[in-house]
């Protein structure tokens, strides 16, 4: 399937080519406009759209947030927009890209193959992680080094797709983000004083279910497929030389015959889409470099390990709910007990998006607590004065 968006202008391609050749990312110039466009979209959302719409829709909440929380709010808005956009696009490509579907027949094509539509997903993800890297570096005191490391790792993985390398798996691993919208909704419920409501409860149920299904089950299975495909391609190349030898001996090598055996019947779009699959390979294509396989697979392993760690923290939080002793309640003042789903979602939100508190955030929280104590003391003083005045009048 060809890239559904218009191609970049020739001057932009010419500008990007020297850098792409130096980094050995030959497909990047043909998607550079989408990378830059995605970055501009997310930066504009954070700097302009989120403050404007948030002040308009939630004037009594957004305007009263402190600096750290307001930055977090805007970042969550970007995360919500990005996850909805990238998930919809990835699912559309997976269902509509016939050339990508036909790559199921060849591990070599899944590793070296390319389609314009999959390149679009790669570009949107790269643009987001460029923005994520800039924001994480700029607000390092707020988000911490862990979030910055995650941005660097994810950016490296998706940028390597422009070799092209494992272009087929770009939309696959994007589906990790299916749980992100529910995580953002949970966070906004807390900030909008909707904690414990029906919306947060049902959203939390969906969050746990989607996280387990997409990140643990689906993600682990697809990671194993990547390891198998990379190993197969490296093993094949070491024995047979250039990887295109297998393609030339394959009945799927003709660009005019789709992999289901039916002719394109002269359709220009079909012929063009078929010719793109191995567009960036040639007789000079050699084995996958060892460092590339190690970087890609190690980053993938780290991300999967984090998913299991986060889910383990969620299970641990649920167990604490059962192991903890019941707190005595007075009939006059009862505090609402958070549900297991709410606590688990809060634990996940803290680990994945907020990160550990830094001295900066601890100081800010201390000031916030001090202000709250001062406000409470002032309110109590006013109440006492009012009672004394009432006594004197009586």
From TrEMBL:
Protein name (record): TLC domain-containing protein
Protein's membrane topology: Multi-pass membrane protein
Lineage of the species this protein comes from: Eukaryota, Fungi, Dikarya, Ascomycota, Pezizomycotina
Residues covered by the TLC domain: 68-323
Signal peptide annotation: none
Membrane-spanning segments: 73-95, 111-130, 142-162, 168-189, 201-221, 288-311
GO-annotated biological processes: lipid homeostasis
GO cellular component: endoplasmic reticulum; membrane
């Amino acid at each position: 399937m060809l890239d559904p968006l218009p191609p970049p202008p020739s001057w932009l391609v010419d500008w990007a080519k020297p850098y792409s050749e130096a980094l050995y990312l030959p497909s990047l110039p043909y998607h550079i406009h989408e990378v830059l466009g995605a970055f501009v979209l997310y930066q504009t959302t954070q700097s302009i759209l989120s403050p404007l719409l948030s002040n308009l829709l939630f004037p009594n909440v957004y305007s009263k947030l402190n600096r750290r929380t307001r930055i977090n709010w805007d970042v969550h808005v970007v995360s919500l927009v990005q996850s909805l956009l990238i998930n919809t696009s990835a699912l559309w490509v997976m269902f509509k890209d016939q050339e990508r579907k036909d790559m199921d027949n060849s591990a070599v094509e899944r590793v070296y193959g390319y389609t314009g539509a999959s390149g679009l997903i790669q570009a949107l993800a790269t643009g987001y992680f460029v923005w994520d890297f800039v924001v994480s570096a700029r607000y390092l005191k707020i988000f911490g080094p862990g979030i910055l490391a995650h941005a660097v790792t994810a950016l490296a993985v998706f940028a390597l797709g422009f070799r092209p390398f494992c272009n087929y798996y770009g939309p696959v691993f994007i589906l990790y983000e299916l749980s992100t919208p529910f995580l953002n909704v949970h966070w906004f419920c807390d900030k909008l004083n909707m904690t414990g409501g029906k919306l947060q409860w049902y959203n939390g149920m969906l969050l746990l279910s989607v996280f387990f299904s997409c990140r643990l089950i689906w993600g682990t299975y697809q990671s194993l497929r990547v390891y198998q495909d990379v190993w197969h391609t490296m093993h094949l190349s070491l024995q047979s030389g250039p990887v295109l030898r297998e393609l030339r001996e394959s009945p799927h090598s003709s660009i005019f015959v789709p992999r289901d055996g039916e002719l394109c019947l002269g359709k220009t779009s079909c012929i063009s889409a078929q010719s793109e699959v191995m567009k960036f390979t040639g007789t000079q294509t050699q084995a996958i470099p060892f460092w590339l396989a190690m970087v890609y697979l190690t980053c993938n392993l780290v991300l999967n390990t984090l998913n299991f760690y986060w889910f383990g923290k969620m299970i641990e939080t649920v167990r604490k709910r059962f192991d903890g002793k019941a707190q005595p309640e007075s009939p006059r003042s009862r505090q609402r007990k958070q549900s297991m789903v709410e606590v688990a979602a809060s634990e996940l939100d803290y680990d994945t998006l907020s990160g550990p508190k830094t001295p900066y955030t601890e100081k800010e929280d201390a000031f916030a607590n001090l202000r709250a104590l001062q406000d409470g003391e002032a309110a109590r003083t006013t109440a006492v004065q009012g009672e004394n005045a009432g006594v004197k009048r009586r």
